[in-house]
Structures are given as structure tokens and as C-alpha cells.
Design goal:
The complex is a heterodimer of chains A (557) and B (600).
Chain A lengths: L3 H11 L2 H6 L9 H19 L3 H7 L2 E3 L2 E3 L4 H10 L18 H12 L3 H20 L2 H13 L2 E6 L15 E4 L5 E11 L8 E10 L10 E6 L1 E3 L5 E4 L2 E6 L10 E14 L5 H37 L1 E5 L2 E4 L4 H33 L3 H32 L11 H9 L8 H13 L5 H13 L3 H23 L4 H27 L4 H16 L1 H15 L5
Parallel strand pairs in A: 3-6, 4-6
Antiparallel strand pairs in A: 1-2, 4-5, 5-11, 6-7, 7-11, 8-9, 10-11, 12-13
Helix pairs in contact in A: 1-3, 3-6, 6-9, 6-10, 7-8, 7-9, 9-10, 9-11, 9-12, 10-11, 10-16, 10-17, 11-12, 11-13, 11-16, 13-16, 14-15, 15-16, 16-17, 16-18
Chain B lengths: L7 H12 L1 H7 L8 H19 L2 H8 L2 E3 L2 E3 L4 H10 L18 H14 L1 H20 L2 H13 L2 E6 L15 E4 L5 E11 L8 E8 L12 E6 L1 E3 L5 E4 L2 E6 L10 E13 L6 H37 L23 H33 L3 H36 L11 H8 L9 H14 L7 H13 L7 H27 L2 H36 L4 H18 L2 H9 L4 H4 L10
Parallel strand pairs in B: 3-6
Antiparallel strand pairs in B: 1-2, 4-5, 5-11, 6-7, 7-11, 8-9, 10-11
Classes of the chains: A alpha+beta (557), B alpha+beta (600).
């Protein structure tokens, strides 16, 4: 499998990332050539080391034994090779041994890994997110103790948020932290749905745990963040005794069976405060934002993997005749419709993810608040839209296989099962949509949105895009006004609103890809754009009607 | 873990208050036995049986799956025992022909039983479910001798039936099949070949399994015109018709699947198995289609089944799960948070599932109603109209109901958040089980071609008329209705647009037949949403009448009005998209070269 050409096209021609990297101090080491080389290596590693243990990992699953969680066969070796290749440190801070790679580049490597083996990649995603959070909020001494080993892949980080009664509503969480007075805290409580909560691939597991200090205010404002290692770390960096952190059970799930989803018990486990007391949620969001972007990429990658095998199958499977001859099914119009849907959604989705990551890079390299705002605006769109579309592509890919898509043998059904979680975790897509509407659009009266869409219109002054964009802005203004008066209607329209913005952005990126294309590629991309405009974009209009209806009707059940 | 509750109230609403099956039963052959009291008793009893006996095997059947032993397939624990009780209760014979020991009750009543059975455990229900098609085919095309040999015990449920169509290299395109049937001197045939994806192909629940197998007699024409159909029992029969030695039919392997683990999906090997030709040679596919239609209606009900389960599970969960406060003020001030059912986005999901579920039930019974007339109607002209209507509704029902059923099942997972993804709750199994429904019995793509190509355009639009006329007349009669006048205006617009879209595609298809495949799935989904709008208008009308007349069930009827409003405002706009996408020029699909799909 290889989306490499598409990635290189985005890197070089569509976004011309080298110009931006070379113009900044932060990413001056990065060139288009280096980017190509990194992606080629990532693709090779994904194909050779991760893809072969994807289906076997699903069949075997994880096991909980007396000494903790055991990952499926081959995962320990794959992780060792992954660390050896330096992949856990891509996005890391160079001060602590990271590579300081631009996110616009690392998200593409992430995609390659996810589309080979989502379960495996999740261990890395959680670890990278935890390292980011430690880097941004922890004390220097915690950074020094933990970051290098995390970047080396010797240890892995995880996040412990959810409790049985507190999922989307973290304000309800009960895990307690007692100040022991020596800079240490005793953590007591149960966490569930902890992805990668334990495994046998790294020497240590570093938990970032949300808990309440004694006497802290109720609700969101009384939550603090703690670093709790599975094994204590001695002053010389060697590992000491096991901390009072145990795995109660692992979940039996629909998919991502090779990723251990754990119930984690903290029985007076020793930990360290990260950032300020009662500011835990804010610190956690550093990690969440990265992870939301990454989970969006999981959705994209699942759709790409499903497309890749569906396309191959459709070229080989002969059923029905075209012009009197037995034909491969990819010659039938309805099969082309399915394949093209998957294809354009993958092309555009990748562009959106890279663009959002690039905004995040620019917010740092140019110290740009406007770009930070834009990255924040796009994060929920990437998370929810890419996972919704990715899931749809997985289902379509399964459909292309007919009955063979339902049996395990071909691996298509695994993509459907594995991708389904991405719409749920790291904040359900319903939560993402509310985040977009309330905290990203209504919060500034839609001005960050307008700035972005104005930029898009200037870059792709296609009349149908510009008019759709204008329609969307007008509707957004109306939405801001209506919600000010009827805040309870927000949830009624938010998912449709997020989807509408997703389709609009996809249109922009596909236009931009046509504009950046050269040679024979122009006609091919033109065709895909036309398909998108005629066959996908009408969904946008229907969403606008539905949003209008939702702004004026109360939902009663 | 939520328990299954047979949705008897809603089934009765649809059966009694909308379609009025009781009146229909007074007019059709054999309907006289289905008195209102009898129907009521049957509904109560199958509801009880499904809830108490069948439903408990649903989760365990998924976990345990089927096993292939030395002697053949072993169904999950409890399946056999429940099936024996089902047979003892006389359920398999409910709507079968009295000539072969059936009770002769209306087809639609059998469909109600199947609806409830399938919701309790779809995988289990497939074992008796697949027998129906096999029985119909034998009844319609078998010789008297074959009927006498097989039907009585299939009707009683002592034996089950299967249909063996697919082979490794041919699924949607049966013209490619290779299984051979060679004539023996005694008039029987020896069948040799391999079939795959045979649902309920083998099991230990019944004494014998009667396979209906598509195969080629040597020398037959190539393609679909050279296919014959044979009855091949798992166990041969002795002279007195009892089970004798094993036939050369065996299950070679079981598929490992995404879901419906309780149902054995078999690779069936025929190694010179003894079989008997049904009807005439080379007419196999035609005969098979008589059975496919009932199987397709049966599969349509699968979409409803998973949607019904999704709404039952998700509603309970959304009322119990406390997360966050309502934005319009606390709704559960004494609790730590409000139940998530107060949040509009959760309501959007629940109302989507609910409106699709109840709309699907209407579509299911619309088919059932016409199936009764086709099967037992006394008036030739009425039968013809019903048959036309059913021929259009069947592909719509099969594909639309399973597609939106999968959407509902997936939303059912979403309402549960992370819990929906774990095996501790029923939502994930429900979604896995549902995914097969858009694939087997003809994929959605195949149904689209059947509807638009074979049925609508193939008849020059004639077959479509009874359905669009029914909707149009209903809308016209209700333009002034206070409750549904607005809906009626919308329905009139839609039937008009539907006609225009059909014309538009029909004209294009005359130039290039590829246009059909390019528009067919969008066309079918469009038709589904329009039908569902009609059903919601009907339900809203009846609900408003009941409320106006005074009722003790205000909540039930008001919910119908609210849900209708939601459907028209939030779901029906999908037709806007579909009307646009189905008209997109063919070159948006066909210009893309096969090679260009490859990424590298």
C-alpha cells in the first residue's frame, strides 16, 4: 500500500511546506527531500513490520496475566524496531532527545502506520501525547527523568481520564490525590478505558492521571493532573519497585483487539503533580488536542487501507459483463461510485489533516496567534469528520468485497471494527461538534472561521466554492445569534454543522489540488474534483437545510 | 445488559390502526381463521416465547459461535433446545399450506412472527427463516412426489432448508457457476461441486436439512440460461420416506465472520451427492427468484430488527447514564448530572433511530399487506396491482431498510460512547450482526439495479405507478388535513420529483445503459426516504385522530407526532442530496480509468 505519491504531492506542490520550514528557525533542518525520505522509510516500516501483524494481532488479542498485559505475538519485536527507527520521537522536543519534526510531516507518517496497524499505532499515539503534555506542563526535573526514555521508546506514556461514571463529563470524576508533603502524592481510584494502560513492549508505563486533591472545588475546577509511573524511577534513572498501579481487567471490544484497553487501579500509588493544582484539565488538553488530530488521522488511514484493498479486489474480481464480456467489477458504474467516493474522501481528508497540522506548526514557528486559533478551529473537524468519513469508507470498502467483506479472511471487516472506535474515543464526535460550535465558532462570533474561509476563497476563487462558503458564513452568523438566545439548540445542529464545514473544506482542498497539479495529473484530479462536486457536495446543501430546521425546531422524544 | 422486549404496541399500531389487517383477513382466502382474537393471542405468545426463550441465546450464541465437529456443525448452546420448543409450539407451520400440514394462516402473520423472532436473535431466526424460501420453491415448482417427500416435515420444522447458490468465483454473477449435476439411470442426479456462504448450511438442530442447489447439467448452455435447481437432502430417505444414510453432502469449513456468529455460514461440499431435479432443466434461476423475493423481504426485516434493538438499548442507556447538565437548566437537580437523554445531540441520535425504526416497520408491513393479497387475494386485478407494488417495494425494502438499519445500529453504538464499543453492552454485537444485511441476498448495489434497471425502466415506468399513485392519492386526500396537510404538500412535491427523476434517468439510459448503474443506489435510497415520508404522514394522521377522539395513550400518540415532525425536518432533506447526486453526469464515474484508482 502506498499513499506516498499523494503525500509528496501535498508536501511539495500543494502546501509547499519546504518554503515555510526553511523560512522558520524551528524547522530549518527540514527540506522537501528529507520529508520524502522520512515518509519513504515510514512506508517501508509500516509495510514490512506493522502490516504483517495486523490481522494476527486482531485474532490473538491482548491477554491479562499475573505480571500484566501481554500484547499479541510480534508486537514486542515491532515496538523495538519502531523505537530503533526513532519513530516515537518524531514530534518530540529536541532538548530532551526529540526530533522536532513539523507536525505537517509527522501526521503523514502517522497515517502510514495507522493504515498498516491501528492497534499498534495507538500505543505510540498515547505515548507521544503524554510526552507533549509533560513537556508543556511538568517541572524540569520530571521532564529530565521521563522525556528522554519516552522519546527513545523505552517507556510509553498513557492518559488516564475516564472513570466508570465519568466519560464525556470529567467534572464527575472521583479519583483522589493526597499530598504527602514531600512533593509526592498518593493516588487512589479506578480508571477505565485506558488505551495502552499496560503492555509488555516497554520497561515502564507512565500514567498521566486526572484526580482531585483533598478540598479541591467540585466539578471541572477541582481536577489536577499527576504523573504516576508503573515502576518507580531511581535517581540514577534505573527502575525501582513497582508502584501501586495494577490492571484490573482488559475490555473485550468490537475491534482494535491488539490494543489493550484497561481498567487501571491506583491503590495509593505515588505520583507527581504536573502543572498547577486544579489546572489539570487545561494541561490535559495539550495532550488531547494532539491526540484528536491523530485520531482523525486514524479515521483517514482506516479508510485509505480499506480503499487500498477494495481497489485491488475490484480490479481482480470478475462478475457480470460489460459490453458482452466478463468484466472486473471495477468497470461497473456502481462499483466505480463506491471506489471514487473512498478515493476523493481520502485525498481531501489527508489534505485537511496536513493543513491543520501545518497551522499548528506555524502557530509555533511564526508565533502566530491567528494560526493557533485556526488549528484549534480545525481540530474538532479533523477528529470528527475524518473519523466519520473514514468509517464510511471502511463500510464501503467492505461492501465492495460483497460476502467476502464480511468474513475475516480478507481483513476488510477488521477495518470496519477497528475504525468504529475512532468516532467515540478522545471525545465522541458529538462532543467534537459542540466544541466546534461553542468554543471555536460562537466564542468569537465566527471571526476565526470567517478569516479561514476568506483565505480559502482567495486561494480557490472558484465561483461555486465561494458561493457555498458565503452561504455557510451567513448561516453561521444566524447560528451565533440563535444560539445566544436558545443555547439548548446547539446540540441539535452541531454534528450537521461540523459535517457541512468538513465538506466545504474538502471542496477547497480538492480545488487546490487541481490547481497544484501538472501534466497528466491535471485531468485525473479534475475528474475526481468533478465527482466530488456532483456526487458528494450535494450533501452540503442538505446539511444546510437540516441545520436551518434544527435552529428553529426543538427536539422532543 | 438490556433485555429484549417484543414491540407489540407498535406492531399493533401498524397492523391494526394503520393497515387494518383484520379487515384484510376477512377478504382473503384462508383469512377467516385469523380472527382478531386469534391474532392477538399469537402476538402475545410469540412475544413471550421470543423474550423468554430465544433472546437469552443471542449474546451467548455470539460469544460461543458454531463449531465444526466430526459429525458436522454444532450450533451454540441452547439453540437446539429452543428450536425444539419452537417446533413443538407449531411456529414453523403457521402460515404454511394446510395440504402439507400447515396452519394456513396469512403470510403477513408469519412475517410478524419472523419480525419478533429475528429481533430476539437474528442468527437463530435464520435457521427456521431460510426454510421458508426453500418450502416456497418446492411448493411452487416441485413434483408431487417431491412435495410429499419433503414438505410435511419442512412445514412442521422437523427438517430445515437452505439455498445453495454462491460459489467461490461467483456471487453476484450466478451465470458463472460450475457445480455439476450428472443424470443417473434411476432418474436422480449426482451433484459435484463446492458452495460457499451457505447460511444454516449445516447444524444439529434438526433431523435433516434439505438443500436446494443450483447446478449445471452437462451440455447445458453457458451462463444463466444453463442453470438447473436440485433438491439434495443431507440425509437420504428410505422407501418409507424416513431419514436413512448420509448423502455425500458435508460442511467443509465454517466462515469466521464479523457477526451473526450463532448462524453457521458453511462451505458445502457436494461429492456426487444424490439430488433430484426440480421442475424443468435450465429453469433453475427463474425458480430461484420466486424464493429470493421472500428471502429479500425477510432480510429487509433484518434492518428493522437491528434498528429496533438499537432504540431499545440506547433509550434505556440514555435515560440512565448521567453526564453533564442540560444547557437549558438542570433536569435532575438531585443527581450529580443529568441523564444524557436531555442533550439535544443525543436526542438527534435517538430520534434518528426511532424515526427510522418505526418507518421501517411501516415499510415491512406495507410489503406484508401486499404479500397477503398476492398470495391469497380473491380478485385477479387486485393481485396484479399488489404484485406490481411488491415487486417495487421488495428491492427498496431489502436495500433501504438494511442500509438505514446499519446506520441506526451504528448510532446505537454512539449513544453508549465507549461502552458501546465493548462486548459488555449489546450495541457492538448489534452493529456487527447488522453489517451482513446490506451484503447477502443481493447487495445494495444489486438491489439498486433490480429496482431501477429491471423493474422501473424495464417496465417503461409502469411497475412504479401503483406505488407512486398510492402515495399521490393519499397526499391529495389529505391536503386539508390539519395534522398532515403540510406533509401532504411535501409528499405531492416528492412524487412529482420522483417521476421527473425517473424520466430523466430513463432518457439517459436509452443512450447509455451504464447510466442505470451510476444512478441506481441513489435512486433506491431516494425512493426509500420518500416512502418513509409517506409512512410517517400516515402514522401522524392516525395519531392525530386518536388524540382528537380521546385516548388513554396520549404519550404514545404524541410521540408519533413528534417523531413525524423530526423525520420531515431532519431526515427527509436527504432526498435533496440524492436527487442531485443521481443526476450527476455519468462521466463523473466512467471517465476515471480503472488504473487511476491505484494510488501509486
Amino acid at each position: 500500500m502506498s499513499a506516498l505519491n499523494e503525500m509528496q504531492f501535498l508536501l511539495r506542490d500543494v502546501f509547499q511546506l519546504e518554503n515555510s520550514w526553511q523560512g522558520s528557525e524551528l524547522f530549518a533542518d527540514y527540506t522537501a527531500e528529507l520529508g520524502d525520505a522520512i515518509l519513504s522509510e515510514a512506508e517501508k516500516f509500516a509495510r514490512e513490520a506493522l502490516a504483517p501483524i495486523n490481522r494476527s494481532g486482531d485474532e490473538e488479542g491482548c491477554r491479562l496475566e499475573a505480571d500484566g498485559v501481554h500484547t499479541p505475538s510480534g508486537f514486542v519485536e515491532a515496538w523495538a524496531a519502531f523505537s530503533e527507527g526513532g519513530w516515537p520521537s518524531m514530534a518530540g522536543d529536541p532538548v530532551w532527545g526529540g526530533q522536532g519534526m513539523p507536525k505537517a510531516l509527522s501526521v503523514m507518517a502517522d497515517e502510514l502506520f495507522y493504515s498498516a496497524n491501528s492497534s499498534f499505532m495507538l500505543y505510540s499515539t498515547l505515548s507521544v501525547g503524554a510526552a507533549l503534555c509533560i513537556d508543556a506542563h511538568a517541572s524540569e526535573s520530571l521532564k529530565e527523568t521521563y522525556l528522554p526514555a519516552l522519546y527513545e521508546g523505552r517507556w510509553a506514556g498513557v492518559m488516564d481520564l475516564t472513570e466508570p461514571h465519568a466519560g464525556s463529563d470529567l467534572g464527575l470524576l472521583r479519583t483522589k490525590a493526597q499530598d504527602l508533603g514531600n512533593g509526592e502524592y498518593a493516588i487512589e481510584g479506578n480508571k477505565m478505558f485506558i488505551t495502552g494502560g499496560d503492555q509488555d513492549m516497554t520497561e515502564n508505563v507512565i500514567h498521566l492521571v486526572l484526580a482531585r486533591l483533598e478540598g479541591a472545588p467540585a466539578g471541572y475546577r477541582g481536577i489536577s493532573l499527576f504523573l504516576v509511573p508503573k515502576f518507580h524511577v531511581n535517581d540514577d534513572g534505573s527502575l525501582g519497585e513497582q508502584n501501586a498501579v495494577t490492571i484490573g481487567s482488559i475490555e473485550h471490544k468490537m475491534g482494535i483487539n491488539a490494543s489493550a484497553t484497561c481498567v487501571v487501579n491506583f491503590d495509593g500509588a505515588k505520583g507527581y503533580l504536573v502543572g498547577e493544582a486544579n489546572r489539570g484539565l487545561q494541561a490535559m488538553f495539550t495532550m488531547m488536542n494532539y491526540e484528536r488530530l491523530s485520531i482523525g488521522v486514524q479515521g483517514l488511514a482506516s479508510g485509505v487501507a480499506s480503499y487500498d484493498s477494495a481497489m485491488t479486489y475490484a480490479a481482480e474480481r470478475k462478475q457480470g459483463s460489460v459490453a458482452g464480456e466478463l468484466a472486473a467489477i471495477n468497470r461497473h458504474a456502481d462499483v466505480k461510485r463506491m471506489l471514487l467516493t473512498m478515493r476523493v474522501m481520502a485525498d481531501a481528508g489527508r489534505a485537511l489533516a496536513v493543513y491543520a497540522a501545518h497551522c499548528l506548526d506555524c502557530s509555533k514557528s511564526e508565533n502566530s496567534a491567528a494560526m493557533a486559533q485556526r488549528a484549534a478551529l480545525l481540530t474538532p473537524v479533523v477528529k470528527a469528520f475524518l473519523t466519520d468519513q473514514g468509517f464510511e469508507s471502511c463500510v464501503i470498502g467492505q461492501q465492495v468485497f460483497g460476502g467476502h467483506g464480511y468474513v475475516r479472511e480478507w481483513g476488510q471487516e477488521q477495518w470496519v471494527r477497528d475504525a468504529r472506535i475512532a468516532q467515540i474515543y478522545e471525545g465522541t464526535n458529538g462532543i467534537q461538534a459542540q466544541d466546534l460550535v461553542k468554543r471555536k465558532v460562537c466564542v468569537d462570533g465566527g471571526s476565526a472561521l470567517k478569516a479561514m474561509l476568506d483565505d480559502f476563497s482567495a486561494l480557490t476563487p472558484d465561483s461555486s466554492f465561494v458561493s457555498a462558503s458565503q452561504q455557510f458564513l451567513t448561516l453561521s452568523e444566524e447560528m451565533v445569534m440563535v444560539l445566544a438566545e436558545h443555547p439548548e439548540r446547539e446540540g441539535a445542529i452541531s454534528v450537521d454543522y461540523l459535517h457541512a464545514l468538513g465538506y466545504l473544506s474538502y471542496h477547497h482542498f480538492l480545488l487546490r489540488m487541481v490547481a497544484a497539479a501538472t501534466g497528466d495529473d491535471v485531468a485525473v484530479r479534475q475528474q475526481r474534483l468533478q465527482f466530488f462536486e456532483m456526487r458528494i457536495m450535494p450533501r452540503f446543501n442538505a446539511l444546510l437545510s437540516s441545520i436551518k430546521a434544527g435552529l428553529s425546531v426543538d427536539l422532543v422524544l | 445488559m438490556a433485555d429484549y422486549k417484543a414491540p407489540l404496541r407498535d406492531i399493533r399500531f401498524v397492523r391494526d390502526e394503520i393497515f387494518d389487517f383484520n379487515t384484510l383477513y376477512t377478504k382473503i382466502n384462508g383469512g377467516e381463521d385469523a380472527t382478531p382474537d386469534m391474532v392477538d393471542a399469537i402476538l402475545d405468545e410469540i412475544g413471550r416465547f421470543a423474550e423468554q426463550e430465544i433472546a437469552p441465546t443471542n449474546v451467548t450464541g455470539d460469544r460461543e459461535g458454531c463449531k465444526l465437529g466430526e459429525d458436522g456443525v454444532i450450533a451454540p448452546s441452547g439453540f437446539k433446545e429452543v428450536y425444539q420448543k419452537f417446533v413443538e409450539g407449531g411456529w414453523p407451520s403457521l402460515s404454511a399450506d394446510p395440504e402439507f400440514g400447515g396452519q394456513g394462516l396469512p403470510v403477513s402473520l408469519g412475517m410478524t412472527v419472523s419480525e419478533i423472532v429475528g429481533q430476539a436473535n437474528w442468527s437463530w431466526g435464520m435457521y427456521p427463516g431460510l426454510s421458508h424460501g426453500a418450502k416456497h420453491l418446492l411448493e411452487a415448482h416441485g413434483s408431487n412426489e417431491q412435495k410429499d417427500a419433503f414438505l410435511p416435515r419442512m412445514v412442521s420444522g422437523e427438517w430445515t432448508g437452505t439455498m445453495c447458490l454462491t460459489e467461490p468465483h461467483c456471487g453476484s454473477d450466478l451465470g458463472l457457476l460450475r457445480t455439476k449435476a450428472e443424470a443417473n439411470a434411476d432418474g436422480s442426479y449426482s451433484l459435484t461441486g463446492t458452495k460457499i456462504f451457505i447460511s444454516a448450511g449445516d447444524h444439529d438442530m434438526a433431523e435433516n436439512i434439505v438443500h436446494l442447489v443450483l447446478a449445471r447439467v452437462p451440455g447445458s448452455p453457458a451462463g444463466t440460461k444453463g442453470i438447473s435447481i436440485f433438491v439434495v437432502p443431507k440425509n437420504n430417505l428410505d422407501d418409507s420416506g424416513n431419514v436413512a444414510e448420509r448423502n455425500a453432502v458435508s460442511c467443509g469449513a465454517l466462515e469466521h465472520k464479523m457477526g451473526i456468529h450463532g448462524n453457521a455460514t458453511c462451505v458445502m461440499n457436494f461429492d456426487g451427492a444424490k439430488g433430484f431435479l426440480i421442475g424443468e432443466q435450465n429453469k433453475g434461476l427463474n425458480y430461484m427468484f420466486t424464493m429470493m423475493n421472500s428471502a429479500r423481504i425477510g432480510t429487509a426485516f433484518q434492518g428493522l430488527a437491528h434498528s429496533e434493538l438499537a432504540i431499545q438499548h440506547a433509550t434505556d442507556y440514555a435515560r440512565d447514564r448521567l453526564q453533564m447538565r442540560s444547557l437549558s437548566g438542570k433536569k435532575n437537580p438531585d443527581g450529580p448530572a443529568d441523564p444524557i437523554i436531555v442533550h439535544p445531540d443525543v436526542r438527534r441520535m435517538l430520534l434518528t433511530i426511532k424515526s427510522l425504526t418505526e418507518g421501517m416497520r411501516m415499510m415491512g408491513y406495507h410489503m406484508a399487506y401486499n404479500a397477503d393479497i398476492v398470495s391469497d387475494g380473491k380478485d385477479e386485478e387486485e393481485r396484479k396491482v399488489a404484485d406490481d407494488l411488491l415487486s417495487i417495494l421488495t428491492p427498496i425494502g431489502k436495500a433501504f431498510m438494511t442500509e438505514v438499519g446499519c446506520e441506526a445500529a451504528s448510532l446505537g453504538v454512539q449513544v453508549f460512547g465507549g461502552h458501546g464499543y465493548t462486548a459488555e453492552w449489546p450495541a457492538e454485537q448489534n452493529m456487527r450482526d447488522c453489517r451482513i444485511s446490506t451484503i447477502y441476498e443481493g447487495t445494495t448495489g444489486i438491489q439498486g439495479l433490480d429496482l431501477l434497471g429491471r423493474k422501473v425502466l424495464g417496465s417503461g415506468g409502469e411497475l412504479l405507478k401503483p406505488l407512486t399513485k398510492e402515495i399521490y392519492v393519499f397526499a391529495k386526500e389529505n391536503l386539508e388535513n390539519e395534522a398532515i396537510g403540510g406533509y401532504s404538500v411535501k409528499l405531492q412535491e416528492l412524487t412529482k420529483e420522483w417521476g421527473e427523476l425517473t424520466m430523466h434517468i430513463g432518457m439517459l439510459a436509452m443512450e447509455n445503459p451504464e447510466e442505470v448503474g451510476a444512478a441506481s443506489v441513489d435512486y433506491l435510497m431516494y425512493a426509500g426516504y420518500v416512502c418513509m415520508a409517506y409512512y410517517w404522514a400516515q402514522m401522524a394522521k392516525t395519531a392525530a385522530e386518536k388524540l382528537a377522539a380521546g385516548t388513554s395513550e396520549t404519550a404514545f400518540y404524541e410521540a408519533k407526532l413528534h417523531t413525524a415532525k423530526f423525520y420531515f425536518a431532519r431526515i427527509l432533506p436527504r432526498t435533496i442530496t440524492l436527487a442531485a447526486t443521481m443526476k450527476a453526469p455519468l462521466d463523473t464515474l466512467m471517465d476515471m480509468d480503472e488504473e487511476q484508482f491505484v494510488i501509486v
